[in-house]
Amino acid sequence: MTLLSRRDKKIIWHPFTQEKTAAEVIAITNAKGSYIYDESGKAYLDLISSWWVNLHGHAHPDIAEAIYEQALKLEHVIFAGFTHSPAVDLCEDLQEILPYELNRFFFSDNGSTSVEVALKMAYQYWSNQGLKEKNLFLSFDGGYHGDTFGAMSVGSRSGFHNSFSDLFFKVLTIPYPQTWDDDSEIDLKEENALSLLRNHLREHGSKIAAFILEPLVQGASGMKMCRPEFLVKLIAEVREHKILVIFDEVMTGFSRTGSYFALSQIGIIPDFLCLSKGITGGFLPLALTVTTNIIYETFLSNDWNMAFAHGHSYTANPLACAAAIASLKLLKQSDTQNALISIHESHQKGISILQSNCSNIEHTRILGTISAFDIKSDYNLSAKLKKRFLEEGLLIRPLGNTIYLLPPYSITSEELEITYQKITNILKQLSK
Ligand SMILES: *Cc1c(COP(=O)(O)O)cnc(C)c1O
After folding, report:
1. Which of 106, 193, 284, 409 has its CA 20 to 30 A from that of 180?
2. Which of 45, 43, 32 lies closest to 417, judged by CA?
């Protein structure tokens, strides 16, 4: 144990960790590009973008400088009654790559709060119009939306928060028809989900305020992918019952799925769009809940109670906004756009190498810059694999027996090729 990890063990309580059985923490001293470095100087290739936040590599000088310059001018100001150009510039920049209808931006600090804001706005949208009975939410089994109580409630079937389930508000769920390469049963799975949806709509349709989903990919429950045409059908039926639609693109946003946002691959404009994680390129916490003017206008009134009474101390923090502006500029560059394509191609090559060398994998799937597959096993191998990957200098965190890669856009084809070779070797050893 190093000195720092020993000091950590005495004083720190880590997130999402069973502290009694957890492996020793690794002390990271610095990071650059696609690598993070520990105290001994060992490099780890960051294949999970430091859990889905990093876009352009670590310590990118453009973003670092934007934060520094902004810090010398204005580090923060209360956002009720005040504004600043980093906030307005960022929303104008985002509007350029969003559907025209999504043109009202509400700031908060993280993915969970962006979801919380969408849920509260959706509920109040109806209650401001005298429809208080619209107090149910609809979501997918396995959906993950964050760790605050509202976000946990709509993610109640994700299995992450079982200790708190007695305190959740009521949510109706439908099965998620996960699919993969050469899936012969997908039509059946989708029909089943649609028929259960129809049951809910028949019984409770008029009481449902909103449907929340992670479009195209459920992240935390194991990079589970579904077909866009299924979501089109589903959402059309949902909308017939005057139910609002919330796209939680906290993970899928900012080109993870190949397009700036997953919504454009589905061709649907939701009533709310939740953004966070990649928004600042992985530098600072920030989130946005984007909605339409139709929603916004139902909150306009001479009665204060009709207003949206929600805010955070660091709402629209100028440093975070400056980082987000710089990150978005990098994202729009042709180099980055080309990198998205080459990452996708590297995944295709890598997955086919895995398939021809390892008999113990199944359910391969790729979308944009995300690849995933499952290991056939009766045991949960995630801890063992995580350790083996780290030994090989790969930062990969399996979700159960699902292995996925979600790299920063700075990663090269060679680095991905080596990664797939190393994974192949590790999996071959495993089956011996
Ligand atoms: C990570 C995540 C969240 C929660 O975001 P935090 O910033 O961790 O609170 C919500 N929704 C999705 C889809 C996520 O992946």
Report:
1. 409
2. 45
